[in-house]
Amino acid sequence: MRRKTGLGLVLAFLCLAAPAFAVKEWYDHYLLARDRLMPAGKWAEAAASLQEAIRLKPTPAVNEQTYGLQFVDYLPYYQLGICALRTGDLNSAIRYFNVEEGKGQIKRAESSYRDLIRLRAEAESGESQRLARLARETVERLLREAQDLARGRRYDEALARLAQAQAGAANLDPAMQQKVVEVRDRVRGEQRELADGTARSQRLEQALAEGGRLLDDGRATEAILKFDEVLALDPRNARADAGKKEAQEHIRTRETRETLLQRANLGRSLFQAGKYEDALEPLTDAAADPTNSEARELLEKARRMVEGMRVQKDLRARIEALMADAERLLAARKYPEAWVKLDSVLQLDPENARARERLTSAQRMTGQDLFANLFPNFPPLLTFFEPKALEVEGRSVGVVGVATDDRGIVAIEFKQDGRPVGRQVPPASGDAGEAQRSVRFDREFPLEAGENEISVTSYDTQGESRTETFKIVRRLRIWERRAFFPSAAGVAFALVGGGVALQRARRRRAVRKRFNPYIAGAPVHDDEMFFGRDKLMARILNVLHHNSLMITGERRIGKTTFMYHLKRALETDHGTEYRFFPVFTDLQGVPEDNFFHAVMADVVDALELSPATLGALRYREDGAYDGRDFSHDLQRVVEELATRTDKNVKLALLIDEVDVLNEYSERINQRLRSIFMKTFSEHLVAIMSGVGIKRAWKSEGSPWYNFFDEIELSSFTREDAEALIRTPVEGIFRFEPDAVERILEASERKPYVIQKYCIHALNHMLEEDREVVRVEDVEAVRETVRFEGRDVGPRATPVAD
Amino acid sequence: MRNPFIAGSWVRAENFFGRTAILRDVLEGERDSLWVVGARRLGKTSLLKELEHRALQNPQTPFVPLYWDLQGSADARGLADGLLGSVEDSEAFRRATDIAVEDLEGHSVADMLTTLVRRTVRSGWRLLLLIDEAEEFLTVARTDAAVLPRLRRVFQKGNEVRTVLTATRRLAQIDDLPDVATSPFLQGFIPALYLTPLQPEEARALLARGKFSEEEQARIQERTANHPFLLQLIASRLFESRDLAATLDQVAADEMVSNFFSVDFQTLDARERALLEPVARSGEQSLDELARAAAVSKETAETLLFGLRMMGYLSLENGRFRIGNWFFERWLRRVAAAEPRPA
Fold first, then answer.
1. Nearest to A659 by CA among A612, A695, A608, A615
2. Which of A492-501, A696-705, B44-53 has the highest mean pLDDT?
3. Which of the residues A677, A691, A699, A704 would you substitute to probe the B interface, choosing the one with the greatest number of B C-beta atoms within 10 Å?
4. Which of A28, A335, A415, A460 could form a disulfide with A24 if both were Cys (CB 3.0 to 4.6 A apart)?
5. How many helices (H) does chain B have, and how many strands (E)?
């Protein structure tokens, strides 16, 4: 006991001593990696340092204070992505970039975000090339193995290899796909030829032997039936011919002419009653009479009918056996072998719906298995939308996010303070019971006062998992504290004083940090900074299911910001019979001949399409791509989206900077319109935004833009403009009413100009070390705002007719 | 309830209203070559989509439909490309005729059409060819005139194919083009069927979706003269705002609507425009007054006025012509006021 106490003391001492080692803060690791190790090309050391930073501070942040008045954009996953990219680990690079993007903060750091997109594209391109190379090598290897096996007459194994090759070639060039199909058909043909030949000779030998035996036993009629069977397979078979003649002679000597006629009558009546098999014997007897041509004719017909039935019966038996084999192989997860069996069934019975359905499943699983071998599995990704803050006052906190994984998510577990508190098992989708690839979760956690540890773990089908943990601090509201009521009166004064002091301290801190939340120039992603468009948003959501829209407005009026928020609103608009899949495209800098390709690239990026759909698309990263390809691919995309929901699918293309279309030829614009005339366009809506459409129209047909309803984005209402000025700094700084009036008047309630005024006026106020924005602050920055905003307003060149 | 109105996109099935007579003429009539002429945004594409829908839904029909949008085709190659796209778009057609896109690729557009007709007939059907934006033939005629006679031969293959063209009046110019030397392209397609504004009861059925008051419905019908696009646009905006007066003012001042009238007006020929302008200036005119103002014979004026009336540009009351609807009248007055009065 004494020794245990001593050991405990030592451990306690070590624990107490631990902070002495942990002198480094998250930013020490981060800045070491970003500013020293990475520029020196020490990628592995930089990655280790970044991982350490993430351990201490998992959540990225923009403009985060480090020491003193130093601020830094903390984007550790982005930096890790760069390290991975530079060391050639492209897959990890893509994943880190995706994680950083999923966390959302980087979108506020415009330049870094642009770099992320560029670097990710670089990594994706490299990764695609690597994967394509790997897939090609695999397919070529499988082809070689299949050909070797076929030479050794191991056809089933050869065809199983070819099934895998076919799955692997699905995303390769058509020539390779064609080659696989040709080899498969050749092997299949050889196998069939061999099998047919063997079966034929076995049947022939067997029937010949039985015919001889029956003749020896004096059963001449039955013997003839067997000899006839042989002659049907080999009309020149001398043994069968001789046997048959001998048997007929037996019958002629055994039976009188009268009995042969009776046999003929019996045979005819059985034939007419449809009892073809029973009719064979009497007709065979009767046919021994060379003068009875009718009996011979009926016998021939009956024999054909019986043979046909036998073939059908054999076919059914063969199909049943093949189906049973296929099911057994599927159960044993031998998908390529099952594919071969099911393929055989469909060759025998092309209409067999069950086999077709199971074949689709076997093909998919073969592809997945091959894919799994080619490409290693990685843990799922977790992206969180809530909680937005790690300090809350409420009694509970919502944790909302999405778990994604290319192999499918099988479960999401929730723990609070280490204890499991819930498990979400998403239902399988589709007939084949596939795990969903993207699963949304939304769970409310009750909070204790102080620190609460909440963790979310997602598991994929291969058992890989990822856990994200939040430490959420619940601050008690003052009236929730035990001592509140007894001491309320006494505390009230202190509270007011304390509150004022707290507010004061908060303001001073804000002044010190030069807190300025306004954004001008970049699109506003933050929900809390998005003002003044609620009614318009509601209106658009109300009509979008049936109408495509053109949002017009002068430059810097907030079109791109609006489009971002519309996209977000569509993603979460689950309350109706429609399910929107929004895709955002920016046409800036897209040349005419790349228009359809650029839009499809964004569709592919945004929707995480299945490998099967990707394989069915004509879209490739390089190569010619026109309106017809685009139309073809959109149909495939819509087909996949329909499998993701029971609701009415609406693929929403949000196309920004649509003024670029004004520079295109009318033909391209007409091609775009013609997409919306297609039948599948019932599942398609477009929301375009730009300054305006060129309305001059020379072509004979309808103007391309006339399927849009136009909505103009105008200046803010007074109420919304005031909210934009006051709300972002509420509780910290204040605007004098006259200052607000002056901004409203000078800005003409245009959001970009308002933000400009607010940024500069606030900075001016901070320079003066104040906490209230006055008229003189607004006046002092007027020239600056005018200068910076000189490009605001409609374009100089009109775009109307 | 979400906004049930659709302004701009084509409609079919439960969203389609009226047009009973034209639908019957196409699906049950005797003519195998039809040209449906209509102004812009009067519902030509929707009519074809509804025909396609009805032919696909009706187990008794002898037709298998194929919708072919010519927009942007420009030349024979573009036509072929568009036709392939149409076949690709219609799984029902491919199934019914057992045809694959690969069977057509590499052929000229006329050969493709011939193959389509042959395969359709072989599968026990008749081809209902629904051609949208047929004005594009004007562009094709200018770049590749030789293709039109070949197409016309397929379009008019008697009992095997029923061809429906939709276009504005401009398509009539095709027979005036000097390069088209053979029989007139539109021979057999004439007389054209006119796509008119909706009938009053059809417009009422459409507006009933918005649960507007009787007075509101009546006012919308009066102002739009049952023009389907204007009905849908106003109803859609009224559904959101619930303020009819403001909605009517807003639509009247809407640049998009002005542009629609402007583009539509350009589809008319000079004589037709000359007939409309005096009506806009003076409010109403008789046949004699209009013939004089447009400097055409009374017979010519009568023919042209009939077409304008059928397409909703004009209405006739007590022997006097008025502009078809209030919005168009306002726009035309503005335009007419900006131009010098003819001597």
1. A695
2. B44-53
3. A677
4. A28
5. 17, 8
